[in-house]
Design a protein that fits this description.
Helix content is about 50%, strand content about 10%. It contains 22 helices and twelve strands. The N and C termini lie far apart (about 95 Å). The model is unreliable at about 1-30 and about 130-140 (pLDDT under 50).
Length: about 475
């Protein structure tokens, strides 16, 4: 008796033998092979790690190409953030070539290969849509959404699994040739973003593709294909079916692309922001959406500037800006004397973050820092002399200070307060001590607590 795995293997072998026995017909959808004179790419612009991975796979007898955003960005004369390799080797075979590599993912199994400080993502060609019912390692739900897709195939099949034409270009660095199946190079030259296949079917398979369309439009300035904007507006609710943990990664890609302000407006225009962050979206007023007074827009602009200057950015600062308004509205519902109380702020923060996490999962390592940034605001405003130096040494001081600057620019706190914290960081030690001393003398006099007189005790120990 054969086992289940052996039966599947025999089926695959019989199918491959049958395909080899058929007469070969000319393929009307044969790819264009574009040489260096037409595409103008230089293999030296590919990272050393990616070149090494491709070379090792080819030497092991496999096919290997660069694919996706890295090829697109090179053609647009932009610097790719990372390089992705696609091959006909299975994940297990890739690990045989690179023993220290890791296989990750369940929905799409890929291999992370570390070369020096680089991590190169290696995926396997995936099969097309035919014979879907016979596949044991692919799955869709009743709505047609892809749940798992680990059925491997050829490059000719793999191209139809990709979302946009501009992301479906394969670059063979050994021959310096771009392989174009779907006229993706024409769309890049025309500045157009177009789905491969029926747009509604592709969005229904994976609703995250709507977020990717927004990101590419904002980052690359590509015009969406006719009808795609309306399609996104009409089906924005499909985002609710995407796992919250996956949406966290997508949100960071959206707002840490260096074009956060433009991304924010596009998400709101397409109705996607309300699906990602419903409570925050409901809380924004006219003042919050004003570029001169809105903390959200000022925070995104600040993040875009830091990314353009290649400075580090953190996810916690982004979410602190996005959710500050609903947290403040909850605090303001309390009595004026208690609305700035730390416990009330923390209670409101946990409440807002808890509900927003139902749509976009925010890891505890991030949400903890968000609450620390908010919690430090009242201490920065109070400026107690004994706490100043401790605050300056606090590990979250820089993020909290930057957030205070945004609040100052938006008119939420006095600009003199922000200037004081700026000056005390830039002055020398003697000037710092002088500023702290002046702070103590200029504040309101503290009420002295009356000492209670101790009542004498009787010899038997009882108070008289």
């Amino acid at each position: 008796m054969f086992g289940r795995c052996q039966i599947l293997l025999i089926k695959k072998l019989l199918k491959s033998f049958a395909a080899k026995g058929r007469p070969q017909r000319a393929d009307p959808g044969a790819p264009r092979l574009i040489g260096p004179d037409a595409h103008g790419l230089n293999p030296d612009k590919v990272s050393k790690g990616a070149r090494q991975v491709v070379k090792s796979l080819v030497e092991a007898g496999y096919c290997a190409d660069l694919v996706g955003g890295c090829v697109r960005d090179l053609l647009l004369d932009k610097r790719p953030k990372d390089f992705d390799v696609v091959t006909d080797a299975s994940p297990e075979e890739v690990r045989q070539v690179f023993p220290r590599a890791r296989i990750v993912g369940r929905r799409f199994r890929i291999v992370h290969v570390r070369v020096g400080r680089e991590v190169i993502e290696v995926s396997t060609y995936r099969a097309g849509n035919e014979d879907e019912a016979e596949r044991e390692d692919s799955a869709k739900n009743k709505f047609g959404r892809i749940l798992r897709d680990n059925v491997f195939g050829t490059r000719d099949q793999d191209v139809h699994r990709r979302d946009f034409t501009v992301n479906a270009l394969y670059y063979d660095i050994n021959t310096n040739t771009v392989v174009d199946y779907v006229r993706g190079l024409d769309d890049i030259e025309a500045g157009r973003l177009r789905f491969i296949g029926d747009p509604f079917t592709r969005i229904n398979e994976d609703p995250v593709r709507m977020l990717r369309a927004v990101r590419f439009k904002a980052k690359l300035g590509l015009a969406l294909d006719s009808g795609l904007e309306a399609l996104c507006r009409d089906h924005a609710r499909l985002i609710r079916h995407v796992p919250p943990a996956r949406l966290f990664d997508e949100v960071l890609k959206l707002f840490h692309s260096g074009h956060g302000v433009e991304t924010f407006w596009l998400l709101r225009e397409f109705g996607l922001f309300a699906e990602l962050f419903p409570e925050a979206d409901r809380s924004y007023g006219e003042k919050d959406l004003d570029p001169d007074t809105g903390i959200v827009l000022k925070g995104l602009k600040n993040t875009d500037l830091r990314i353009s200057q290649r400075k580090p950015v953190i996810a916690a600062f982004l979410f602190a800006c996005l959710f500050w308004r609903p947290v403040r509205l909850k605090c303001d519902r309390h009595e004026a004397k208690r609305k700035n109380h730390p416990q009330i702020l923390q209670r409101a923060a946990f409440d807002v973050l808890g509900r927003e996490t139902e749509r976009v999962m925010i890891p505890r390592r991030v949400s903890t820092v968000v609450i620390e940034i908010w919690d430090m605001q009242s201490r920065l405003e109070t400026r107690r002399p004994r706490m100043v130096e401790k605050l300056l040494e606090h590990r979250r001081f820089r993020a909290a200070y930057d957030f205070l600057l945004l609040r100052s620019e938006s008119g939420e706190v006095d600009s003199g307060l922000a200037k004081w914290w700026t000056d005390i960081q830039e002055c020398d030690e003697s000037s710092r001590q002088k500023m702290i001393k002046e702070l103590g003398s200029s504040g309101p006099p503290r009420k002295r607590r009356k000492r209670q007189r101790r009542r004498p005790k009787s010899p038997n120990g009882n108070v008289r």
